[in-house]
Amino acid sequence: MSIKKTVNQDLLRERQRCTFDPEELTIFLDGGIEKTEERRSRENYFFSDPELEDSVPNEYLSHKEKYEEAIRKTCIIFRKVQELQNSGKAGMDSYRSVLGGLLGSSMLKDGNPLALHYVMFIPTIMGQGTIEQQTEWMQKAWTCSIIGTYAQTELGHGTFIRGLETIATYDPKTQEFILNSPTLTSYKWWPGGLAHTANYAVVVAQLHTKGKNEGIHPFIVQLRDEETHMPLPGIKIGEIGTKLGMNGTNNGYLGFESVRIPRKNMLMKNNQVLEDGTFVKAPNSKLTYGTMMFVRVVLVNDMANYLSKAVTIATRYAVIRRQSQPKPGEPEPQILDYVTQQYKIFPYLSYVFAFRFCAAWLWDMYNNVSNDLEKGDLDSLPELHSIACCLKAVSTADSAEGVEKCRLSCGGHGYMTSSNFPQTYGMVTAACTYEGENTVLLLQTARYLMKVWPRVIAKQSLTPAVSYLHEVNQLRGSYFFINTVPGIISALKLVAAEKIRLSYEHIDKRLRQGMCYEDAWNDASIQLVAAAEAHCRLILVEKFYETVKTTTKTLSQPLQLVFMQLCELYAVHTATKMLGDLIRFASLNGEAVDSLQEWLEKLLKELRPNVVGIVDGFDLSDRILNSTLGSYDGRVYERLFEEAAKSPLNQEPVNKSFHLYLKPFLKSNL
User: Is residue 533 among the annotated active site residues?
Assistant: First the structure.
């Protein structure tokens, strides 16, 4: 079949309708024209390498072949990254874009087996190792002379790390730690790259010394011989099997049978074990939180990236796809002209910006707190921890929902693997459970909020992110004009404050009835999760609005208007999802609810001419999108046929199963 390669006319018309220059949006999102040029140059540097091309689409490979292909590509990719570094043409952003960014996920579609080496192994040594330990290990790790992973989660324990069962017992006679996995549930389970890739790991284990359990601590453990890659004596290691997604990540299990490591292999920047076995405790146990918080902070931006892919694919497809005939005799309309279709896609377009802007704010906060920690100042750590927890939970859950909504908006074609929705959903939904299961993380935020509320009652000073709680009395009983974003923010402040107050009071009520705190907490946990989520959604709306008001002033008027429309849509969509709370706590009446709905519909109509320009502004190349439905030229149906032709079943007119099974069955005269 000969297919003429032209740009879809519907897409061309949409681009002509756009009221702003998408290139201006691209440059703004990248942080300047120099960064845009650097990113595009970096993408071209990788995509022009024929070694990174797929000879066979990934979905047609076996599980074993997927891992082997991931390793092949990963080695090429990181060799090329180091070449960029050595040439001075790229900074640390090159590693970031390959590890968690759009570039990396386009080349390693089913996960990166070396991700934890860079994201967890190296940062843990940097954050928790002494100067001497960093000197010994960092050069080896940075040059990939050794490959590491981070082994914390066990078969029986994940988020509750104090319950980990792996034991590291100190032997003062030999000045060694002896690692053991006393139960099946104590086997490490899930670490990426652990199965067949890494030869070292940071292992988190219960430290036993002088007959006492001193809690969990990190240890550097060699897993495999550096030459033969065979597992060392006492190391029980393997892969955990196939998953919904990320099957190239090489997640593994790990058990220990009397594995001895030197005393110096315990990371001792904070806690220490002396030669005679004496345990020296760090001034504050919270100093060890850094690595986990780092990953949670980064994840919020990753969710914006994955969601931007989904909305780009769904938007372009909705321009090209025509369906039904609501007006007899007229052409089938683009499905993007249906308001229900706009409602499926446009709100998640606004979510991309909400997550991106909040991620930038959180990143700045993380760096400031990290600097404070280096000086011994821990005051701002609890607030950062609480915000990172809830933003990770809400952004991953919303992104998983958004990717699935975008897939459904594409009908049957969205179900095709070649649409790239299944892979994107697999990557995003995985984030809902790794680095802390979302419900547990929201409860972590709630624990912080419960500690804050007594300070509200006592009218004491509060940290910036919760300072709005002092406004609760003046907000209570107010009439909220929710026809503006500040009006919605005020209403959301009251909702969050009242949910926090009620959670605190319901725990207190149970305590006065004689219940222990742990049981009172558990009984109130549904309310606690809801309070933490309300607090988080307020932060997202507020930071989106603040960013638009402060950082878009230099942009053209048409683009400024689009940003404000997106901000309003995010605020309105958040409010409509929380209508019950707004009616209950902010006394919203029927007229206000109707007004909110009309505002939502108005914003969908206003954004309609510009949505293709917005997704074009994301500047996602076809290689990064990897979608038959979302390519820049809009050749949806041609690409679907081209991908179908790649199926191994289409390489021969008759499959051997016909002669082996089907023909005898047809001739059997049943």
Answer: no
